[in-house]
Structures are given as structure tokens and as C-alpha cells.
Write a structure and sequence with these properties.
The chain is built from 12 helices and 9 strands. The N and C termini lie far apart (90 Å). It is an alpha+beta fold and 339 residues long.
Length: 339
């Protein structure tokens, strides 16, 4: 029995030292120390010994078990240490490498220009009001003094949902809706997307953005309009900017004008940017037509007002010296990162 126990101990230790991984080590544990292992089988054979020899042999078996477990524990610690070192070596982190940058977007050039315009007019006491993009013909045309078969409808060549509903061609319908409410005086701008059946080129698009303004109060004159737009131009393009009003025709204003600003690139001397004229057209404006006031429930004998409209893309193109409107919509990250 003693010789057999000694053989089990020597073979177990040899197998433990030869184990190259935790799985092999566990196989030794099961085959030697497990419920059906060699030591357990040896203990069960103690009944063959004389009663007086059993305690001594039992102690030898326990000592052998303890010795094998000690060697096995040391082997396990060494294996764990080697595995950890290998893992750390394979998963090493170079702290000198640059970290992954979180790519954060920013405002679109149109948004930057819109916020600048809103800041200027809010500073003058105006309110920013938005309205629906799908509008009734009544508000988009009729209440703006553009009746059926009016030439202005042909000029805008609009997108109709049906004979009564249209994709708005301007943000003026928002003004008509506000005037209808009768809460006077009114000082507002109405930014938003509009739609016209235009060919896509460097300066046109079937979908673009407008900012229109409206003031209704007692004793409002063309001088108020002129002063407002002069201040707006100076705030937007610089304190040295000059304005020029040219007579024009709009169905919903009378008298009407188009407004030019002195070229902020050359100071009005003439350059490629202003095509040598020294002036750049930016918007249309005029005094609200008395008939428009009447259709919206406002007495033209008591109240007067002015309105103006500017293309947001035009502001962005001028302010950032962009020569092609299509760049604003192509989502080219190389272009957008410049702003």
C-alpha cells in the first residue's frame, strides 16, 4: 500500500509539473484527488488492512493529498501569472497614441446667417413668427392682392396640391395670418422655407428660404422703412454700408422698391464681386397696400405699415462670399467645415 501511495504521489507531481495550461492541471486534480480519483480509491481499500494499521495509513494518504494540493496550487499560481503577463503583453495600450476624437457638428451657413438676422431684428423689438409650409391659395395669393389669373402667379409658377392648397411661394402668408388676428401694432419677421418651380443653377433652387418682415402701426411712413433697412444693412454688412432704393412693383406693397447695398468688398468702387457697379441687390420692400390691410381686417385710414423680404441664401452667399448656391445643399463636409 505504501509503495502504491508513493507511486501515486510521484506520478501526480510529475504530471502537475508537465501541465502546460489550466485544463491539463484540472485533469490531474480530477484523476488523482476527485471522487473517483486514485487517492479516493486507495482510501476505500483501507478495509483490507488490519484495524491497527488503518489510522497510520489514513494519515499517510492525507499527507500525500496535502502535498499534491500544495504543488498543484503553486503550479496554478505560476500559470495564472504567466497568462496575465501574456494577456497584458497582447493587450498593451500605448498611452502616447492620440485619443479618438469625437466629431461634433456645427451650424449650417444658412443657420448662422438666419441667427444673425434674427438677432438684429429682435434687437429692434421684432418678434420671430413661423407658419405652415403647405398653405391655402387664399393666404398665399388672394390676401396678398394677387387674385386668380394675376401675372404674378405665372412668374412664381408654383407647386399646387389642389386648386386651393399650394406649397407657399413666400413667407408673406404668415403676415396675413397675423394681421387677421387684429392684435396691433405688429412688428415681426417670418423666416422659413418656400417653394417655386425654378431651375437649379448657381443662384436658383426650387426650394429655398426667405425672411420677410412686417410692421403695422399708426403713422408708419416710407421713412421708417428706409431707416429700418439702413440700420439692418449696417448691422449685417458693416457700419460703412450705404443703401440705395430703386422703384419697383410688388402686388402687395405700394409704393414698392428694391434695395441695394454698397459693395462691402470694394467699398462701392467696383469689383468682380459687385460686377463693377459698386452695388449689390439684397431685398425687396414697400408700404403695405391698403387693399391688403382691408382684406386682413385692418382700417387703412387709421393704420399703415411696411413689409420687406430677403432671401436667406442670398444673405449667406454675400456674407461668406460663396459663388454657388448649390454648395449650401450638397452636404460636402469639406465645404461645411469652413464655417
Amino acid at each position: 500500500m505504501k509503495e502504491k501511495l508513493q507511486k501515486i504521489r510521484e506520478e501526480a507531481i510529475a504530471r502537475i509539473k508537465a501541465s502546460g495550461n489550466p485544463d491539463a492541471l484540472n485533469e490531474v486534480r480530477v484523476s488523482v484527488l476527485g471522487k473517483k480519483g486514485e487517492l479516493t480509491a486507495l482510501l476505500k481499500s483501507m478495509k483490507e488492512l488490519a484495524p491497527e494499521d488503518r489510522p497510520a495509513f489514513g494519515q499517510l494518504v492525507n499527507d500525500t493529498r496535502a502535498e499534491i494540493e500544495k504543488v498543484m496550487e503553486e503550479a496554478k499560481k505560476n500559470m495564472d501569472k504567466l497568462l496575465l503577463e501574456a494577456k497584458l503583453k497582447s493587450e498593451v495600450i500605448d498611452v502616447t497614441l492620440p485619443a479618438k476624437k469625437n466629431s461634433v457638428g456645427h451650424r449650417h451657413p444658412n443657420t448662422i446667417a438666419l441667427e444673425e438676422v434674427e438677432r438684429i431684428f429682435i434687437g429692434m423689438g421684432y418678434e420671430v413668427i413661423e407658419g405652415p409650409e403647405v398653405e391655402y391659395d387664399l393666404y398665399n395669393f388672394e390676401k396678398l392682392n394677387i387674385p386668380a389669373n394675376h401675372p404674378a402667379k405665372d412668374e412664381q409658377d408654383t407647386f399646387y396640391i389642389n386648386k386651393d392648397i399650394v406649397l407657399r411661394t413666400q413667407t408673406s402668408p404668415v403676415q396675413a395670418r397675423i394681421m387677421e388676428k387684429g392684435k396691433l401694432p405688429i412688428r415681426m419677421i417670418s423666416p422659413g422655407r418656400v417653394f417655386r418651380s425654378d431651375e437649379v443653377d448657381a443662384t436658383h433652387s426650387p426650394s429655398f428660404h426667405q425672411i420677410e418682415g412686417l410692421v403695422i402701426d399708426k403713422n408708419i411712413t416710407f421713412a421708417d422703412l428706409k431707416g429700418t433697412l439702413e440700420e439692418f444693412a449696417k448691422e449685417l454688412f458693416g457700419a460703412e454700408t450705404k443703401t440705395k432704393f430703386r422703384p419697383h412693383h410688388f402686388p402687395f406693397t405700394e409704393p414698392s422698391a428694391e434695395v441695394d447695398v454698397s459693395c462691402f468688398k470694394c467699398g462701392g468702387k467696383g469689383c468682380r464681386f459687385c460686377k463693377g457697379s459698386g452695388w449689390i441687390e439684397i431685398l425687396g420692400c414697400g408700404m403695405v397696400h391698403p387693399h391688403v390691410l382691408e382684406m386682413c381686417g385692418i382700417d387703412p385710414n387709421e393704420y399703415t405699415g411696411f413689409a420687406f423680404g430677403v432671401g436667406l441664401e442670398r444673405i449667406a452667399l454675400l456674407k461668406y462670399e460663396i459663388d454657388d448656391m448649390r454648395l449650401l445643399y450638397e452636404n460636402d463636409i469639406r465645404f461645411l467645415k469652413q464655417f
